[in-house]
Write a structure and sequence with these properties.
Elements (H helix, E strand, L loop, with lengths): L1 H9 L2 E5 L6 H15 L2 E8 L8 H30 L4 E6 L2 H11 L5 E6 L8 H7 L10 E5 L4 H7 L1
Parallel strand pairs: 1-2, 1-4, 2-3, 4-5
């Protein structure tokens, strides 16, 4: 029985939403440190906004391709940090659509995802639209626990938690 519990911990996957916010560093660090200490993995999710209507389909496709390439490049850059901390390549997800909807869909489709980790802005502009959604009735749509990391925490404080 103890072996089964240990295996379940090793399969823990911490999902971090990559959204170019200043506070995302905190979520990435927390997820990496928790994954490293529990034998888990980190997954990174980037959602692209749908291409605006274009008169020419070719222009929209070029814009979509460029946005996807930029997202993949960003995920690879962040992936280097994940590898440095965890020693493992992260699982990468790129989707197009409404970020809230795509996040729920991803978590419901990918059963390997165990925990959603989000960073919270404590600035005057509020916690951020995704965090606001998740902490309201949006949390009812998730099948996994949600960990919120305030942007006021230092790396040392995050490390001490994990």
């Amino acid at each position: 029985m103890a072996k089964k519990k240990l295996d379940a911990v090793k399969e823990r996957v911490f999902l971090v939403v990559i959204d170019a916010s200043e506070e995302q560093h905190h979520a990435i660090r927390y997820a990496c440190k928790r994954a490293a200490s529990t034998g888990g993995k980190v997954a990174l999710f980037k959602c692209l906004s749908p291409a605006e209507f274009q008169h020419f389909a070719g222009v929209a496709e070029i814009m979509r391709t460029e946005a996807r390439e930029n997202a993949e490049k960003l995920l690879r850059q962040i992936g280097k940090t994940v590898i440095e901390i965890t020693g493992q390549m992260p699982v990468l997800y790129v989707r197009e659509g409404d970020a809230k909807e795509e996040l729920v869909n991803l978590i419901n489709e990918e059963k390997i995802i165990s925990i959603l980790v989000l960073a919270v802005s404590t600035g005057s502009s509020g916690p951020g639209p995704l965090v606001s959604h998740v902490t309201s009735r949006g949390a009812l749509n998730f099948r996994v626990p949600i960990t919120l990391i305030p942007d006021t925490m230092s790396d040392e404080e995050i490390d001490a938690l994990t």
